[in-house]
Write a structure and sequence with these properties.
alpha/beta, seven-stranded mixed sheet, two-stranded parallel ribbon, 16 helices, 13 strands, binds ligand PLA, pyridoxal phosphate, EC 2.6.1.1, pyridoxal phosphate binding, transferase
Length: 410
């Protein structure tokens, strides 16, 4: 007999709000105006505003087809060749933590999945510890810690008066947190502000983290994308490793290899002994098994092929410089258009000082809404725009929209 249901058993399920970042792309797709521009999600586009598959990725995929590789399950920790190269790329192949086997690396479902696994690990093994996140930060960090039931609080980071780093506030808040907290740090190209500490400031941040017995937890989603150099963008992580910290690093290949939908990344835990590393790795695997069993192979093979082959690796670096260079060019053009067109004398130089994919414009929610409602420019409501989705030819239009929204909306 068929079950007849008049009232849904799911009646109590309320409608979830759209995601603050991915929801912007949904709204963009629904807009039919020709002028529309999607500066919401951080996804690299060409000057023609088309998605971009890197040439090295196509070459690596061709290699994979030629080799006729199979589709059997990977081990829980992922593809061994991937895990090896991803740790080397991050820490440097000659780093003592690698030589001494002190890094527990397991393949994750890109940056997000790797962060989520690490959060589950923190919850299980440090149930009383708290996470510290920057204010502001990538919005999903809060969701990740909430869902993993890791309590978190914010440390000051952005100073709207200087449109720069609130360094003293940051240090004071890290100092005031309970000893042994996990301090989430953006390895480079801070999202959403595009403001990174200087090398001297990183040293001082390391001092206070050390003094407080905190555990650094790096989110590295933009290695190579901030400066165009993989090594320069690993500066902060390598500095902390050099100073002898045990730490966590989540990695993502969404942006630097353009592998967004392949969901490829890793979680690395640097331990003070190889023995601890082995045990940590075993527990990360234990956490992963009931969540997703084992990770997908396609992206892992691409990364292993590109990073593991000297020719492809060099070609990748050139393509990355090209992408980072295009973003720097639109950043420069946008700054010039803003400065030339805005007659109020406002200083727009902060646009040039920020690095990475984004510019944090300082536009508040009502102004950001105006950008979308009047100008069909889609962006997150915190005033962040993705320069990776902007072309040189659209800079002038964007500058007009920003100037209008900034001066005419309270
Ligand atoms: N960490 C930071 C700081 C990020 O900005 C992002 C992506 C991730 C991790 C995770 O990316 P992944 O899971 O694809 O590896 N941030 C994007 C996209 C680019 C997003 O929100 O999912 C953004 O627009 O902020």
């Amino acid at each position: 007999m068929a079950v007849s249901v008049n009232v849904s058993r799911f009646e109590g399920v309320t409608m979830a709000p759209p995601d603050p970042i991915l929801g912007v792309s949904e709204a963009f797709r629904a807009d039919t105006n020709d002028l529309k521009l999607n500066l919401g999600v951080g996804a690299y586009r060409t000057e023609e505003l088309q998605p971009y598959v890197l040439n090295v990725v196509k070459k690596a995929e061709k290699l994979m087809l030629e080799r006729g590789e199979n589709k059997e399950y990977l081990p829980i920790e992922g593809l061994a060749a991937f895990n090896k190269v991803t740790a080397e790329l991050l820490f440097g192949a000659d780093n003592s933590v690698i030589q001494e086997g002190r890094v527990a690396t397991i393949q994750g479902l890109s940056g997000t999945g790797s962060l989520r696994l690490a959060a589950a690990f923190i919850h299980r093994y440090f149930p009383d510890a708290k996470a510290l996140i920057s204010s502001p930060t990538w919005g999903n960090h809060k969701n990740i810690f909430n869902d993993a039931r890791v309590p978190w609080s914010e440390y000051r980071y952005y100073d709207p008066r200087t449109v720069g780093l609130d360094f003293d506030g940051m240090v004071a808040d890290i100092k005031a947190a309970p000893d042994g907290s996990f301090v989430l740090l953006h390895g480079c190209a801070h999202n959403p502000t595009g403001i990174d500490p200087t090398p001297e400031q990183w040293e001082k941040i390391a001092d206070v983290i050390q003094e407080k017995n905190h555990i650094p937890f790096f989110d590295v989603a933009y290695q190579g994308f901030a400066s165009g150099s993989l090594d320069a963008d690993a500066y902060s992580v390598r500095l902390f490793v050099r100073r002898g910290f045990e730490l966590l690093v989540a990695q993502s290949y969404s942006k630097n290899l353009g592998l967004y939908a392949e969901r490829i990344g890793a979680i690395n835990v640097v331990c003070s002994s190889s023995d601890a590393g082995t045990r940590v790795k075993s527990q990360l695997k234990r956490l992963a098994r009931p969540m997703y069993s084992n990770p997908p192979v396609h992206g892992a093979r691409i990364v292993a092929n590109v990073v593991g082959d000297p020719n492809l690796f060099n070609e990748w670096k050139q393509e990355m410089e090209l992408m980072a260079g295009r973003i720097k060019n639109v950043r420069q053009r946008l700054y010039e258009n803003l400065s030339e067109k805005d007659k109020s004398g406002k200083d727009w130089s902060f646009v040039l000082k920020q690095i990475g994919m984004f510019s944090y414009t300082g536009l508040h929610k009502a102004q950001s809404d105006h950008m979308t409602d009047k100008w069909h420019i889609y962006m997150t409501k915190d005033g962040r725009i993705s320069l990776a989705g902007l072309s040189l030819s659209k800079c002038e239009y964007l500058a007009d929209a920003i100037i209008d929204s900034f001066h005419n909306v309270d």
